[in-house]
Amino acid sequence: MTENTPEFIEQWINLAQPRLGAEIVSCSDEFFAECSRMLEPQAPVFIDGKFDDNGKWMDGWETRRRRNGGYDNAIVKLGLAGEIKGIDIDTTHFTGNYPPAASLEACHCDGSPDAGTDWTTLIPSTSLQGDSHHYFTIDNSACFTHVRLNVYPDGGVARLRIHGRVVSDIATLDKAAVMNLAAVEVGARAIAWNDAHYGAVANLLNPGCGVNMGDGWETRRRREPGNDWCIIELGHPGKVEQVVLDTAFFKGNYPDRCSLQAAMVTAGTADSIVTQSQFWQELLPAQEMAMDKVHEFSEAVQDIGVVSHVRVNLFPDGGLSRVRILGKIDA
């Protein structure tokens, strides 16, 4: 993160990721640039000299110049329902064609929003700047499924990020089934780490396989004693039966060994959990890693009872693509 980037960017996942199922439900206009580009996971780019039939190609959502009053809007279905902690309205590369102002509303509905939907304003009408990130910290504990971005009166937005906490209803889960307790879909999240120089720890919890080396957690090269680590809060406490550590795409930079510690945490802060984690019980003793491989461990997993948090240790450093903590939810 840069010095001015808010903490919610790393603390909470982007609920508006297409890989989680996020999609555009509707938009008032997308004459110059398709609205779906606004949700693309990669940073926006500017390609000098690239034009299409309607004009300059832009990496984001851009509407035509409005001449009849009113304003443009787009409705986004979040990939996973959750509490919204922070929002980034990004106008990168939009300089003479960004909206002068925007607002954002959210709702919770089972289907698609309609004329009778009750919307909650999370960001009131606020002035925007061109070629800039606009960060908003949100203080609202409600669970939302959709957001509506309004731009006044028209223009372009490169990216929209909706960071938040996944709300997973334990009543809807099969408590007798073995599931990935470290899946973002059930509310798991990374809460602490000592280094994430090349890749975010949150990537470890994403669904599916990694798409490349950048779609994982990778630390810098360690030049001093010790080892790298991260702490994952499971979506729901449970008893672990199997651990899967995937080093897909990591060939010259995979960890030499990995181990896991775990505990049932009932109180404290992220800082206190980091301190306590040094003394947690061993869930998986150190195991040798290999390049670009899915490592599955069952017999080596220690029976330490119900746990809510897991500490992943890399020896001494390196990268992992995915971590799966398979077990049953504590009923």
List the helices and strands and how they pair.
Blueprint: H1 8-11, E1 13-14, E2 23-27, E3 51-52, E4 55-56, E5 61-62, E6 72-90, E7 101-107, E8 120-127, E9 133-137, E10 144-152, E11 156-157, E12 159-166, E13 179-180, E14 189-193, E15 217-218, E16 228-246, E17 257-263, H2 270-277, E18 281-288, E19 294-297, E20 306-315, E21 319-320, E22 322-329
Antiparallel strand pairs: 1-12, 2-6, 3-4, 5-11, 6-9, 6-10, 6-12, 7-8, 7-10, 13-22, 14-16, 15-21, 16-19, 16-20, 16-22, 17-18, 17-20
Would you give an account of this structure?
The protein folds into 2 domains: 8-166, Sandwich (Jelly Rolls), CATH 2.60.120.260; 170-329, Jelly Rolls (Sandwich), CATH 2.60.120. The strands form 5 sheets. Strands 1, 2, 6, 7, 8, 9, 10 and 12 form an 8-stranded antiparallel sheet that branches. The chain has helices spanning 8-11, 270-277; strands spanning 13-14, 23-27, 51-52, 55-56, 61-62, 72-90, 101-107, 120-127, 133-137, 144-152, 156-157, 159-166, 179-180, 189-193, 217-218, 228-246, 257-263, 281-288, 294-297, 306-315, 319-320, 322-329. It has 2 helices and 22 strands. The chain is globular.
